[in-house]
Design brief:
The complex is a heterodimer. Helices cover 31% and strands 9% of the residues of chain A. By secondary structure, chain A is of the alpha/beta class. The relative contact order of chain A is 0.11. In chain B, the strands form two sheets. Chain B has a five-stranded parallel beta sheet. In chain B, helix 6 links the parallel strand 4 and strand 5. The chains are: A alpha/beta, B alpha/beta. At the A-B interface, helix 1, strand 2, helix 2, helix 3 and helix 13 of A face helix 1, helix 7, helix 11 and helix 12 of B.
Chain lengths: 477, 379
């Protein structure tokens, strides 16, 4: 199947081992259009280019090969870089590289590419969620104060927000709780496991005690427990990229700076480590669901080259596997095994378990583990590129996925996330500020809406979260 | 098949750039130095991939060209057509006179599989005898067996401008100023097409990205750069060309027009829809505009369903079996996020998932209806 998967622009022959990587990036289709006189010599091959300029990919000897064309070109004394209105970057058929003018498309880095859609398509403006929302993945009020956060919640239709406080001891938990005390019905405050000294004897009992104390202090669940390969570390360890910088030409603000790999990152046990068993069980007994983040999107693990579909984001979030680290598959597996081993504990896999690229596998995990759920937070960009498949998946598992934000609250974020959930809008880019409304992250993809049917929307927005909390309580009883 | 290794970051060129910019070669191997033009993403989504070996219904390809250079190649083309379910191809030779009859000879073994269309002879356009000469040339092609006209191309510089694909000895372009479709000097020709029952295939403009700033905001790169059009005095812009086409179509209501490539309004199908509504003698082919529509599949399916009788299947991309299969996959399936049709836009493609009744029309019935109408109009 060389044809449809072969790169086409810039003069490449599928059956000649790859694109023309020689110094001369000679573009044979263009020569037909740019070099008067050549047609006479190449007349038998006149329709090698579609009338509108589409390159025609044909194999084998049906094409004049590059050498033939070069010879033909030289014979006719063709000069390099003849340009006119409709021509591409014609290059000399032989001889030195024709340097593309600075700023011209051949010099644009993928890193700097921030396309805007020209399509005139329906734009669904959503000012409030169609049904009340429970946000099952949030880390706190961030730069806003809690009152401002509640104001946005009211405006956008967020009934309740699960806050991952990051606290693993009751003292700290109580301290954080106070910030939200004025709105007891609007927030569910969750704690973390105390992962200190996980390599020492007595870890389990100590951590269980800390958990019980947090529970007494009001913690309703646990999260976000995050393992990107090194296990659950003592403190929340974030690979969050550096702060944003201004985009090109005053364009959208976003980051393109990858986190350097950090060999000194703290480590800890993985989910399926026996040291964790007591904690998972106790969480179940206490009726506390657990939000667990394993792995990262698949493109972080792929070769960082021109074939990586998830660039530049895959680069920003890149993960370099070192000895002892779990890879993507092991991490997903560790969650699956843990959910199996602790059937009375409720697990919410954050970010669709980073299986946005393979929702079928997530579905199989749902089939096997009735105590497993998933949130869709921060995986809108990865699923909005396959909207119909995602829609089918959510319709097949209408009770298992919950809405989540994972950003500091701001109106544009909710508008776009609701647009993705509710509308069938197509081909849009959303590049707000990093960590707020940058839906594209650093992916090159255009986004599309899922157009979820009302009943599924209602479930994902709200009812599934309610049922999860209820089920956790019932399991505890 | 190109392996990942075979098209790894181009070493020789990377070093060339390194020396030019003074960066060490190893720095060039990271994706933050990756040029957009070298980007060839592969989808790793595990989602359904529908293999479409044959079109679901028989197909008439309303937009192709004499790609086959020999009788043997024509034979191969027919074998490809048989393999994928293509009943017939409308071969737009763009040629007139001897050029046309040469091609006709080449295709003569498969008369039932190809319609051969001729071009206008514009050589005398700027002289007094143009109308007479060009009508004569048209009649001669018609008598020789031409069943339609095409592809007339105006990308702003007028009809008959060199498009680079026809051999010089067949060129029938004018020397000097060239007409746009609504030029009154072409009225007799377009009328005669109607009287002869010959539909006319016209390509105006190019995709909108070819007209945009060639910078990091251009969604249609790198393709747009290759097709870029500089509108300058004497060159009609995108909208003007489409308006010129519409005036031409209105002036000749008994002539059937095929607007090539969805009039290059893939980004604004609603406007094309209105134009189709206003002009019952106008059809639009989808040739070589799969990549531009497969990124908005649901909107396209909706648009087609609103104009079910006016859209024609076309390719304009050679006669490779895999090419045909990719177009079928786009029309028939709901597959998502795949890269095909040789990467020229950065975005992924998605299938339109057209319902059977509509698919049948676009594949074949609309073309047959258009040909029949053209014949009826001549009576």
């Amino acid at each position: 199947m060389p044809w449809p998967h072969s790169p086409g622009h810039g003069g490449t022959w599928p059956d000649q081992g790859g694109p023309n990587l020689q110094a001369s990036s000679f573009e044979w289709p263009i020569i037909h259009r740019t070099l008067p006189g050549l047609e006479a010599r190449t007349s038998p091959r006149q329709f090698a280019v579609g009338i509108d300029g589409h390159d025609i990919f044909r194999r084998g000897n049906r094409n004049m090969n590059r050498r033939e064309l070069m010879l033909a070109g030289m014979a006719l004394g063709i000069k390099p870089a003849i340009t006119s209105a409709q021509q591409g970057p014609a290059m000399a058929p032989s001889g030195p590289v024709q340097e593309a003018p600075p700023g011209s498309p051949p010099t644009i880095l993928l890193n700097d590419y921030l396309p805007n859609s020209l399509y005139r398509l329906p734009v669904t403006e959503i000012n409030k969620a169609k049904y009340p929302v429970i946000d099952a993945h949030n880390h706190g009020h961030g730069p806003l104060n809690v009152a401002e956060m509640v104001k946005i919640m009211d405006q956008m239709g967020i009934e309740k927000t699960v806050i991952f406080t990051g606290a693993s001891d009751a003292g700290r938990f109580t301290e954080v709780s106070r910030q939200y005390a004025a709105y007891p019905d609007r927030f569910d405050l969750w704690c973390m496991f105390d992962m200190a000294d996980s390599d020492k004897p007595g870890f389990g009992a100590k951590a269980v005690k800390a958990l019980e104390a947090c529970h007494r202090a009001g913690a309703r669940g646990i999260g976000e427990m995050s393992d990107k390969g090194r296990g659950f570390a003592p403190r929340r360890y974030s690979r969050r990229p550096p702060r944003a910088f201004e985009g090109l030409n005053g364009g959208p603000t976003h980051t393109r700076n990858p986190m350097p790999p950090d060999p000194d990152a703290p480590t800890g046990p993985h989910a399926d480590d026996p040291r964790m068993d007591a904690l998972w069980d106790r969480a179940g007994q206490l009726g506390m669901p657990i939000s667990i983040h394993v792995s990262d999107p698949i493109w972080s693990y792929q070769k960082m080259d021109h074939t990586n579909d998830g660039l530049m984001n895959g680069w920003t979030w890149r993960i370099i596997l070192e000895p002892g680290m779990y890879d993507h598959n092991q991490l997903v597996d560790s969650l699956d095994k843990t959910a199996q081993k602790h059937p009375k504990t409720i697990f919410i896999a954050c970010h669709l378990s980073n299986l946005d690229y393979d929702l079928t596998r997530l579905g199989e995990m749902f089939d096997r583990r009735p105590n497993l759920y998933a949130d869709i937070s921060a995986r809108f960009a990865e699923t909005a590129t396959i909207p119909r498949f995602t829609r089918r998946f959510l319709m097949k598992y209408p009770d298992r996925v919950v809405y989540g934000s994972d950003v500091s609250y701001n109106v544009p974020f909710f508008k776009t996330s609701f647009r993705i959930m509710e509308s069938e809008d197509e081909h849009f880019y959303e590049r707000g500020k990093v960590e707020t409304a940058n839906f594209n992250f650093n992916y090159h993809w255009p986004l599309n809406g899922f157009g979820l049917p009302d009943d599924v929307l209602k479930n994902v927005y709200h009812d599934n979260a309610v049922n999860i909390f209820k089920k956790a309580q019932e399991n505890a009883a | 098949m190109l392996s990942g290794a075979a098209i790894g970051l181009p070493k020789p060129r990377a070093q060339g750039r390194a020396s030019a910019h003074g960066a060490p070669p190893e720095a060039e191997a990271t994706p933050d130095k990756l040029l957009l033009k070298d980007y060839r993403p592969k989808s790793i989504y595990r989602i359904p991939e529908t293999k479409v070996d044959r079109a679901k219904y028989p197909v008439i390809d309303c937009h192709t060209h004499p790609y086959a250079r020999t009788v043997a190649e024509v034979d191969q083309w027919v074998r490809n057509m048989d393999a994928v379910g293509l009943e017939k191809g409308v071969v737009m030779t763009m040629a007139s006179g001897e050029g046309f009859t040469d091609i006709q000879e080449r295709f003569s073994q498969h008369k039932d599989r190809f319609e051969l269309w001729c071009g206008f002879d514009f050589t005398q356009f700027n002289s007094a005898g143009f109308e007479h000469e060009s009508l004569e040339a048209l009649e001669r092609c018609h008598d020789a067996g031409a069943t339609g006209i095409g592809e007339l191309v105006d990308k702003g510089r007028g009809l008959g401008a060199p498009v680079g694909t026809e051999p010089a000895n067949w060129r029938r372009g004018p020397t000097g100023p060239r007409p746009h479709p609504d030029d009154p000097r072409l009225d007799a020709l377009f009328d005669r097409c109607g009287k002869l029952g010959m539909p006319v295939s016209i390509h105006v403009s190019d995709p909108p990205w070819a007209y945009e700033a060639m910078d990091h905001t251009n969604d249609g790169l790198m393709n747009a750069y290759k097709w870029r059009i500089e509108v300058k005095p004497g060159v009609l812009g995108h909208e003007e060309l489409i308006e010129s086409l519409e005036r031409c179509v209105k002036k000749h209501p008994r002539t059937i027009f095929f607007a090539c490539h969805l009039t290059n309004q893939c980004n604004d199908l609603a406007s094309l829809g209105k134009m189709l509504d206003r002009n019952p003698n106008l059809y639009a082919d989808i040739g070589a505009r799969y990549a531009e529509t497969a990124c908005i599949p649901r909107f396209v399916a909706q648009f087609f369903s609103e104009h079910p009788d006016r859209i024609l299947y076309g390719t304009d991309m050679g006669y490779d079996q895999e090419m045909y299969r990719t177009t079928f996959r786009i029309l028939e399936t709901a597959d998502e996020h795949f890269y095909a049709l040789h990467y020229s836009y950065h975005w992924y493609l998605n299938g339109f998932n057209l319902p059977d009744a509509l698919l049948k029309k676009i594949y074949r019935d609309n073309a047959l209806a258009a040909f029949a109408r053209a014949r009826r109009n001549m009576a």
